[in-house]
Specification:
Blueprint: E1 5-7, H1 9-16, E2 21-24, H2 27-30, H3 37-51, E3 55-62, E4 65-68, H4 72-81, E5 86-88, H5 93-98, E6 103-105, H6 107-117, E7 121-123, H7 134-137, H8 142-149, E8 153-156, H9 165-174, E9 179-182, E10 201-203, H10 206-219, E11 226-228, H11 239-255, H12 263-274, H13 278-303
This protein binds pseudouridine-5'-monophosphate and manganese (II) ion (MN).
Manganese (II) ion binds near residues 139, 141 and 263.
Length: about 300
């Protein structure tokens, strides 16, 4: 196992001592944002988590080793290589490890690595879900299955409207994944605070989140919570503007025949281009907001 999984000394010690640790993904770095903003964002996210008293653990596959706790150089490398780094979801893990390759971890893979490292909280921007048109394409992200199986709790800003949000909620319900809303009853839609859809339960504080996570663990139930945290009002986008950009990006992806794992990165990049970078700025701000809540929750969890 040793060459297949590694936690940094800092992460290993923190977990062993019951200190708060927050896992972070790397597909958002190499496939979710352009260089150098991706690297700046990833490093700032780590700083936000440290400032709140928790330890960040950015994850990836480095030379075939599942790694929790990347160095700044490794983050720089993943950001600079960008789309050249393999995007690794659960099904890709064994092959990338066997071939001793590098890989960027999706939400699903980050949950796998976090669980191996003993980390229970994970902050990101948005998760994968049921894509629009999934009734024909069957394109449903492995992130949803992972939330059902692996006990790592994911804090995100809801899901982008590149997905079919009602179907994503239905899928999560079927899989037994509880969707929590942080200080909201409404599922946030990533760039905007509202989707018109309800979360399962509203939660008021990091302390309450920690209690819910602890209770689920004590019950021995599989999987993690999906904790949705609305983008701060001042950074949220005009719903009409972002919807139009998303519709255009989806039309283009269909015309170009984009399929499978290329779909999400293509849509993210096109939406950012169409909005002239506005969506990227919102995206960065909401990730910071999620990192802060994740760190606060990890701190509360470490007290239980
Ligand atoms: N949604 C975002 N930003 C992202 C992703 C999704 O708003 O960066 C990335 C995450 O890494 C997520 C992955 O796990 O895309 C989902 O890809 P797929 O739909 O191929 O499972
Ligand atoms: Mn997919």
């Amino acid at each position: 196992m040793s060459e297949l999984f590694k936690a940094s000394e800092e992460v290993k010690t923190a977990v062993a001592e019951g200190k708060p640790v927050v896992a972070l993904e790397s597909t958002i770095i190499s496939h979710g944002m352009p260089y150098p903003k991706n690297v700046e964002t990833a490093l700032e996210v780590e700083k936000i988590i440290r400032d709140k008293g928790a330890i960040p653990a950015t994850t990836a596959i480095i030379g075939g080793t599942l790694t929790a706790g990347l160095s700044a150089d490794e983050i720089e490398y993943l950001g600079k290589e960008g789309q050249k780094v393999t995007k690794v979801s659960r099904r890709d893990i064994p092959v990338i490890c066997a071939r001793k390759m590098d890989g960027a971890s999706t939400v699903a893979t980050t949950m796998v690595i976090a669980h191996m490292a003993g980390i229970r909280i994970f902050a990101t921007g948005g998760i994968g879900g049921v894509h629009r048109g999934a009734e024909k394409t069957f394109d449903i992200s492995a992130d949803l299955e992972e939330l059902a199986e692996t006990p790592v709790n994911v804090i995100c800003a809801g899901a982008k409207a590149i997905l079919d949000l009602p179907l994503t909620l239905e899928y999560l319900e079927t899989k037994g994944v509880t969707v929590l809303g942080y200080q909201t009853e409404e599922l946030p839609a990533f760039y905007t605070r509202k989707s018109g859809l309800s979360v399962d339960y509203r939660v008021e504080s990091p302390e309450e989140l920690a209690r819910l996570i602890d209770t689920k663990a004590k019950l021995g139930l599989r999987g993690g919570y999906l904790i949705t945290n609305p983008i701060p009002e001042e950074y949220s986008m005009d719903p009409a503007v972002i919807q139009k950009a998303i519709d255009q990006a989806i039309d283009e992806s269909r015309e170009k025949g984009i399929k499978g794992k290329e779909t999400t990165p293509f849509l993210l990049a096109r939406v950012a281009e169409i909005t002239g970078g506005d969506s990227l700025e919102s995206n960065i701000k909401l990730v910071y907001n999620n990192a802060a809540l994740a760190a606060e929750t990890a701190v509360e969890l470490s007290k239980l």
